[in-house]
Amino acid sequence: MTRIKILVDGVDYSDDVEPRTLLVHYLREQLGKTGTVVGCDTSNCGACTVLLDNSSVKSCTVLAVQANGHEVTTIEGLAIDGELHPMQQAFHENHALQCGFCTPGMVMQSIDLLHDNPSPTEQEVREGLEGNLCRCTGYQNIVKAVLAAAAAHRESAPGAVPSGGST
Amino acid sequence: MIPAAFDYTAPESVADAITALGSDSEEIKVLAGGQSLIPVLRLRLAAPTLLVDIGRIRELGGITDEGNTLVIGAMTTHAEMADSELVKEHASLLAKAVETVADPQVRHRGTLGGALVHADPAGDLLAPILALDAELVVAGADGERTVAAADFFEDMFTTTVGENEILTRIRIPKHTGWGSHYEKFTRVAQQWSIIAVGVTLKVDGGVISQAKVGLTNMSSTPIRASAVEQALVGQAPTADTASRAAAVAAEGTNPPTDTNGDANYRRHLAKVLTGRAVQAAVSG
Ligand SMILES: Cc1cc2nc3c(=O)[nH]c(=O)nc-3n(C[C@H](O)[C@H](O)[C@H](O)COP(=O)(O)OP(=O)(O)OC[C@H]3O[C@@H](n4cnc5c(N)ncnc54)[C@H](O)[C@@H]3O)c2cc1C
Ligand code: FES
Ligand code: FES
After folding, report:
1. B51 touches chain A (CB under 8 A)
2. E strands along chain A, which residues?
3. What is the CATH number of the domain that holds A103?
């Protein structure tokens, strides 16, 4: 067992983990944050995407011990006092999900995308979501949602960059 | 799946990491960004008994300008290279290749050192490092040694880095003002190269004065397309020159046959992509 200290969705945790524990399993099984899901065994699908120090990573491809001393934001840390994060709101309004399994990862990667590039073109949105697979939507409404979130953000706070969530 | 159990240590210096690699655990592996190693552990294709995580060693990070040389620490991530003005200015072929690697999440974690030591023949950073005539600095119990990129890759998934050694940094002679292009062929998004061609060249007074061309996945290691280089040097940067150079792109190659295509198909692709890459490199 190795002791790790980690800030998840704004809360400090200190836990003993086996070194082989994947970050996604630590989040789901030790912290009960089941909002982050596992969709594949090959690091391809992106359903497990979280922000590690404000950069998107596939939490199935990071060991919990590697996140020791760092800050993680999951889909569960986005809404503040029950109010959806603007990206969640944009997914909701644009019908950007069907079964919803890819959605936690899609939302987290979309936040990372706008953080890097607040005014992406449609092509840039598609490329920025290259590491996230969706079996239902055909991506059309997901791309629409990300473009809508970018536009909404430009109207509400020109010049500012969308935040990574509660932390 | 969950990896088999292993011990873990995260040293904070190269010296401590080398000591850890020399310890008597049965099978010891270096962990860098984990973007190749963790998938392998998860599928239990490897089951090391000790992982030495080099991700906390500060001296392995950073991109620095040392006169005629650009020095990139082995733990520099793909994303850091893609964002670096120094890399864009002095090693533009590497900057362009790195943008084609995997997806944003993988680029946030995967490192240059990891990509080179992993030495997947389809890896996109090997041919550019070879074409740019980089030198690789490898540290071990007896100190450091410097290896030319041409001597670094020994076979697929095999490099000159020994079990008790660490690749610490990559020294790239500056290619300031050279045009470049990395032409990667894939069928779907977020795919490894079926093959790719990296070209960097210098045009002086209307003539190609120097040209370096590396091929990805056209052999078990990255290779230089020497015939293409010779066909370019001394010629005007025209479409005609590009097509004459492209015609010899498959010379000396030994491409694999797999579900993505057979060897002949890859030879055909090498010619087509070389033509495109040369044309694009001439214009930037
Ligand atoms: C979904 C997906 C898609 C990908 N697509 C591409 C692609 O299109 N093109 C491409 O080029 N790559 C691709 N990759 C691989 C990616 O580039 C990896 O980041 C890279 O191959 C390994 O880097 P790493 O830092 O993650 O190394 P790790 O996975 O940590 O290590 C890889 C190997 O190198 C050894 N090692 C690492 N660093 C050192 C060092 N400094 N000294 C000694 N040994 C070391 C480790 O022991 C291990 O054996 C993809 C990966 C994934 C998960
Ligand atoms: S579960 Fe992490 S990429 Fe699929
Ligand atoms: S909504 Fe079902 S996988 Fe994307």
Report:
1. yes
2. 2-8, 11-17, 49-52, 55-58, 71-73
3. 1.10.150.120
A13, β-bridge pairs:
A6
**CATH number of the domain residue A16 falls in:** 3.10.20.30
Compute the average pLDDT of residues B32-54.
97
In chain B, the residue whose alpha carbon lies closest to the alpha carbon of A59 is B105
**ipTM, 2 dp:** 0.96
- pLDDT tens digit sequence for B111-151: 999 999 999 999 999 999 999 999 999 999 999 999 999 99
What CA–CA distances, in Å, run from B177 to B91, B172, B174, B275? Answer: 9, 14, 9, 21
In this structure, which CATH number among 3.40.50.970, 3.30.70.2190, 3.30.43.10, 3.40.50.150 belongs to the domain B7-53? 3.30.43.10
Q: Tell me B7's DSSP state.
A: E
What is the per-residue pLDDT for A25?
98
Q: Are residues A91 and A71 in the same domain?
A: no
Report the atom number in ligand 3 closest to the C-alpha of A106: 4
Of the ligands numbered here, which is closest to the C-alpha atom of A56? 2
Residues in A touching B2 (Cβ below 8 Å): 20-22, 25
Of A55, A62, A131, the CB nearest to B34: A62
